[in-house]
Write a structure and sequence with these properties.
By secondary structure, this protein is of the alpha/beta class. About 55% of the residues lie in helices and about 15% in strands. Helix 1 runs antiparallel to helix 2 and helix 3 crosses helix 8.
């Protein structure tokens, strides 16, 4: 298209300039110096007209093409958003402002019990409570996913709630979520320990071992993307059947431990908004990679 426009413009310019050259030759023979000056003025005006005509011709061909491309881009974006809306992502901001020490089974039909929910750890340097950090990152993740068209379900959007781990899993189950992502931060007695990890069940989990492959894939993709985006140390994928919030789930689930609040350097990073944005973006990229692999 651009080549055709250029050829048409050159043709118009060539014809106009040729005509100007002929007019100049005839004037040199038959007219005075004053008339020659007039001819030069006519030539300049004609050349200007020819260039303007070429530019007009170019715009006439280019404008519709630009409008078409813009329309196609908008339509493609809408198609992508519609396809994303077919996916539901459940996000659990781990813990809450006040724990609930009442007991609940660690899985369906289990005799072993654990506290329904705890308050979590806190930053040794920042003073930020884990339940606050978890919600900050979860809301950022929610925003990123919704902007791309995903359907997002939150287990909580405030800190002052009382929702047990089994109840949080039930929210994801009821939504038939394609992925249940539980946001947490870690703590250790060793202040030197740092890095991110993810958690999923084992293949022999008595409650939902059939979800192991999908949950492991979710955990792996999120951990890889999270550490790539933030530069955090990649600790491990911990396979365990001791987590109530995983055991009660009937959809692919992982816990994301975004870093150690017991490590001064990592704690201060986690309290920084720019770093929180990177954490949320890394998790989102991991979710998308998981969906691509498992669709």
């Amino acid at each position: 298209m651009e080549t055709a426009i250029l050829k048409a413009a050159i043709a118009v310019l060539t014809i106009s300039l040729t005509g100007c050259g002929n007019a100049k030759d005839e004037s040199a023979v038959n007219q005075t110096e004053t008339t020659s000056l007039t001819t030069q003025e006519i030539k300049i005006e004609t050349e200007t007209s020819a260039i303007s005509a070429a530019e007009t011709l170019t715009e006439a061909f280019t404008a519709p093409e630009t409008q078409t491309n813009a329309t196609e881009t908008t339509e493609n974006e809408n198609i992508v958003k519609k396809s994303f809306s077919n996916y539901t992502i459940a996000i659990d901001a781990g813990h809450q402002s006040h724990g609930n020490s009442a007991q609940e089974p660690i899985g369906p039909g289990a005799s072993e019990t654990k506290a329904k929910v705890t308050g979590g750890t806190s930053g040794k340097a920042s003073g930020l409570d884990e339940y606050e950090l978890n919600l900050i990152i979860s809301l950022k993740l929610k925003k990123l996913l919704e902007e791309k068209g995903y359907n997002v379900i939150m287990t909580r959007e405030t800190n002052d709630v009382d929702i047990s781990n089994s109840e949080r899993a039930a929210i994801a189950n009821s939504a038939n979520a394609n992925a249940f992502v539980r946001i947490h931060a870690n703590g250790s007695d060793d202040p030197a320990v740092n890095g991110a990890m993810t958690i999923c069940q084992t293949p022999s989990n008595p409650y939902n071992g059939y979800l192991y492959d999908e949950s492991y894939s979710l955990a792996e993709n999120i951990l890889n993307s999270l550490t790539e985006e933030t530069g955090a140390y990649r600790e491990k994928i911990w396979e365990t059947d001791t987590m109530s919030g995983i055991n009660w789930a009937t959809v692919p689930t992982t816990i994301v431990e975004v870093g150690y609040m017991s490590n001064r350097e990592e704690d201060l990073k986690l309290a920084n908004e720019e770093y929180q944005d990177k954490v949320a973006l890394g998790i989102m990229k991991g979710i998308e990679k998981y969906l691509q692999v498992n669709e």
